[in-house]
Amino acid sequence: MRFGLVMHEVGQGLRRNISMVISVILVTFISLTFVGAAALLQLQITEMKGYWYDRAQVAVYLCTEVSNGGNCMLSAATEEQIDAVRAQLESDTLAPYIDRFEFENRDQAYENFQRQFQGNPVADLVEPEFLNETFWVNLKDPNQAAILVESLSTMAGVENVEDQRAYLDGIFDLLNAASITAVGIAALMLVAAVLLIATTIRLSAFSRRRELGIMRLVGASNGFIQTPFVLEGIVAALIGSALASATVVGLVHFFVQGYLAPSLAATTSLVGVPEALMVVPIIIGLGVLLAGISASFAIRRYLRI
C-alpha cells in the first residue's frame, strides 16, 4: 500500500509538470549522448594507437647522390655501408629488439613512389637516384625505437633514422582535443540538466504544498515525503539516459560499423557494438546518480523552507 501510494504520487507529479519533465528528458538525452560519444572517442583513440603504433616502423634512410645531411657528402651509400647497416640490424645488440626488417632498393622505392603519386605532376619530376634506399624496421616494442635511432644515426651512409610514430602523434593530439571538447560540452549540458531537475522538483513541490502540509500534519516522515520527488527526477533522467544509450549504440552500429568500417577496415581498427554496450552502464548510472542527488538536494532544501 505504501509503495503504491508513492508510485501514485510519482505519476501525479510527472503528469502535472509534463513540459518540464520533457525538458529534463531532452537535456539529459543530449548531455549523456555527448558523454557517450566522448567515452567512445577515447576508446577509439586507444584502439587506433594500439593498431598503428604496433605497425609503425623505424625508417633507416640511406644516402643518395643528392643527400647533404646526416653522414652524407653528396654521395650515395656504398654496398659496404649498406651491408654494415644490415649487419648492425642483425647483431646481438639490436636483434633482440627487432621483429623483422626489409630493405627497399632504389628501383622499388621509385616504383612505390610512382604508384603513390600516380596522376600527380610531381611523379614525372622524380628520378630513381633522388630516392633513398631504405631499411624498414618493425620493432617488437615500438616504444624502444630510440635504441635504433641512437645506434644507426651515426653510421656511415645513413642520412636519417626516423620513428614513424612521430607522424601519428599529431593526429592523436587532434583526436584528444576533440575528445576533451566533447567532454567539456557534456559537462556544461550535465550542469544544465542538474539545475533543470532541481527546478522541476521544486516547482512540483510548490504545486503540491497543501498536500505536503497535510502529510506533515498526519505524521509522515521527511523520507516518505521526499521519495516521490526524487523518483520523479530519476524517472525523467532514466528515460533520457535510455535514449542517449540507444543513440550511441545506433550510431556505432549503423554509422561506424555499417558505413565507415567497410572502407576503413584495411587501414585501422574501429570500435564496435561491444564497446558501445560497455559505455551504456556509464551513461545510465551517471544519469540516475546526478538526477537522484539533484532531486534529493532540491526537495530537502524546499522542506527546510
From TrEMBL:
How does the entry describe its membrane topology?
A: Multi-pass membrane protein
Domain ABC3 transporter permease C-terminal per the UniProt entry, residue ranges: 185-304
Report the locations given in the UniProt record.
Answer: Cell membrane
The UniProt entry's GO biological process terms, in alphabetical order, are: cell division
Alphabetized, the UniProt keywords read: Cell cycle, Cell division, Cell membrane, Membrane, Transmembrane, Transmembrane helix
Q: Which GO terms describe its cellular component?
A: plasma membrane
UniProt keyword Cell membrane present: yes
- Positions of the FtsX extracellular domain: 57-161
Q: Which residues cross the membrane?
A: 21-45, 177-201, 234-256, 276-299
The protein's job, in short, is: Part of the ABC transporter FtsEX involved in cellular division.
Family of the protein in this entry: Belongs to the ABC-4 integral membrane protein family. FtsX subfamily.
NCBIfam families cross-referenced by the UniProt entry:
FtsX_actino (NF038346)
Kindly provide the name given to this protein in its UniProt entry: Cell division protein FtsX
Q: State the organism named in the record.
A: Ruicaihuangia caeni
Print the organism lineage. Answer: Bacteria, Bacillati, Actinomycetota, Actinomycetes, Micrococcales
